[in-house]
Design goal:
Layout lengths: L1 E5 L3 H15 L3 E5 L2 H10 L4 E4 L8 H11 L5 E5 L3 H10 L4 E4 L4 H12 L7 H10 L15 H11 L4 H8 L3 H15 L4 H10 L5
Parallel strand pairs: 1-2, 1-3, 3-4, 4-5
Length: about 210
């Protein structure tokens, strides 16, 4: 079984390889330190599974996931993130991920997730499955306001909630200040809020930032 591990921390990549070898025995691994390397690796060769971090320097794991799905629609991708399920799980599953797992999960749960995903299934934790079931009959008007945002708008929202200025966001995302300001205006309109302070409070109340 060939697994591509994508994370910007070399120590974490090594730890994941060790956990998976302990659980499965001999495996073939590839490594990518960012989204661009992961996309190139997927385009270059076959992988039974891509383990993908969400938050990396430059392009996000979510952007990488979408490109991977375009390149190879049947590629199995397990998203592994430091962020809570409330922040990203539904979004990455809608984008085509085969599963979502928090990095704080026990090693045994990672092995279980990989086994299920590589067998063709989808993996979510028991707590997330319960949350998803609870939203099936929920009217759109009752869903959290941030669920109406695009992926880029959601990214900008979280950065505003973390205290970054429009200029800082522009530098980090390689966008002009005008473009970031446009995203901010759309976010405020969609969420029916008026100030950065209100956006920040919303992010903390809904656990969108640490």
């Amino acid at each position: 079984m060939k697994i591509l591990i994508t994370d910007d921390h070399a120590v974490l990549r090594r730890g994941l390889k060790q956990i998976l070898e302990d659980g499965f025995g001999k495996l073939q691994f590839g490594e990518a330190a960012n989204a661009s390397e992961a996309i190139a690796a997927v385009a270059r060769e076959h992988w039974d599974l891509v383990v993908l971090d969400i938050t990396m320097p430059g392009r996000t794991g979510l952007e990488a996931l979408k490109e991977i799905r375009v390149l190879k629609p049947t590629q199995r991708v397990l998203v592994l993130s430091v962020h809570s399920e409330d922040q990203f799980a539904v979004r990455v599953l809608k984008a085509g991920a085969s599963g979502f797992l928090n990095k704080d999960s026990a090693p045994e749960e990672l092995v279980k997730a990989v086994r299920k995903v590589t067998a063709g299934g989808r993996y979510v934790s028991a707590s997330l499955a319960e949350k998803l079931a609870g939203t099936l009959d929920q009217p759109a008007s009752d869903r959290p306001a941030h669920q109406s945002l695009s992926d880029r708008e959601f990214q900008v929202l979280r950065m505003i909630g973390s205290g970054r200025t429009v200029s800082e966001i522009g530098v980090e995302l390689s966008l002009s200040v005008k473009t970031v300001s446009t995203y901010r205006a759309r976010i405020l309109e969609k969420m029916q809020l008026h100030t950065n302070a209100e956006l920040t409070r919303y992010c903390f109340e809904n656990k969108l930032v640490e």
